[in-house]
Specification:
- Helices cover 11% and strands 11% of the residues.
- The protein has 2 helices and 4 strands.
- By secondary structure, it is mostly loops.
- Pfam families: Fer4_7.
- Keywords: Iron, Iron-sulfur, Metal-binding.
- GO terms for molecular function: iron-sulfur cluster binding; metal ion binding.
- This is 4Fe-4S dicluster domain-containing protein.
Length: 92
């Protein structure tokens, strides 16, 4: 996985429109069944070649909601990524 949306998500939808590769789905399409938005790890590119920081994290109004997770093999990994579980915006 690249970035992960935590259970502090308020389902506002700000992240979905910002994702350049349509890796984010809303709570009704979350394959885990959780009532939060979800990032498909096999689609997320951490906005490498799109922006300096993952755009979903920049758009999210909830501090610390979007965190780093394991970088999926075969997917680009942000050069300034933090440790797993750290808020994305702390590295940007």
């Amino acid at each position: 996985m690249a970035v992960k949306i935590t259970d502090t998500c308020i389902n506002c939808g700000a992240c979905i429109d910002e994702c350049p590769v349509e890796a984010i789905v809303d709570d009704s399409d979350n394959p885990t069944g959780e009532e939060i938005y979800y990032v498909y790890p096999d689609k997320c590119v951490e906005c490498v070649d799109y922006a300096d920081c993952p755009l979903c994290a920049e758009a999210c109004p909830t501090e610390g909601c979007i965190v780093w997770d394991e970088c999926k093999e075969g997917q680009p990994c942000h050069p300034n990524r933090g440790e797993v579980g750290e808020p994305v915006m702390d590295a940007c």
